[in-house]
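> example.struct
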């Protein structure tokens, strides 16, 4: 069975004014769809992989046949990363995390303000295209960055927060002002979902 493009969990304009409608339409319907399409095309060459989840494929790329490994890394990563990214945003959210996640951020980073500053630094420090992540390994939280559509799953890490810093994620609205995009993105972070992912051990 081939992979499908998941529908957005909200309307294209739901994240306005922080992420604009046209960006959401192009990002989801064109870019994300292309990753899904190209992933399926690669997997068609190896029917023995049918039924394997993206988590399995990306979690052990060395087990993927060499002739499609790069395609699965790029397009499988693009598919999985975006599936997560859309879920980690929601309208009328933002604010600060609560509960277990808030305590973990206090313990690991000295509070939400310090965490946001460190996360923004990593997002801004990614040269070219890629992602900024908060990941969990055991009980420990850390901030990492990956290039292109690489995913922390391939490093044995569990992503709980993800920010797309490819230019197509922000250029229509923010042009070269990545810092403004990153700063405004906090207004649409779905902390409830982040907490759910953090707590799902």
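> example.seq
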């Amino acid at each position: 069975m081939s992979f499908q493009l998941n529908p957005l969990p909200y309307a294209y304009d739901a994240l306005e004014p922080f992420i604009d409608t046209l960006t959401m339409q192009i990002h989801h319907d064109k870019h994300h769809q292309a990753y899904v399409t190209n992933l399926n095309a690669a997997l068609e060459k190896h029917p023995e992989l049918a039924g394997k989840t993206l988590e399995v494929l990306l979690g052990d790329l060395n087990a993927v046949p060499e002739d499609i490994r790069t395609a699965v890394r790029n397009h499988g990563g693009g598919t999985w990363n975006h599936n997560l990214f859309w879920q980690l945003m929601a309208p009328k959210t933002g604010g600060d995390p609560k509960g277990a996640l808030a305590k973990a951020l206090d313990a690991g980073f000295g509070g939400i303000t310090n965490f946001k500053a460190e996360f923004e630094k990593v997002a801004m420090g990614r040269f070219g295209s890629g992602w900024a992540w908060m990941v969990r390994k055991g009980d420990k939280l850390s901030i990492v960055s990956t290039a292109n559509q690489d995913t922390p799953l391939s490093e044995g890490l569990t992503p709980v927060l993800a920010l797309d810093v490819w230019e197509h994620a922000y250029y229509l609205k923010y042009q070269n002002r990545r810092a403004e995009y990153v700063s405004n993105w906090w207004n649409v972070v779905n902390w409830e979902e982040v907490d759910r992912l953090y707590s799902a051990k």
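> remarks
The helical segments are 21-43, 54-59, 66-87, 99-109, 112-125, 171-174, 178-185, 191-199.
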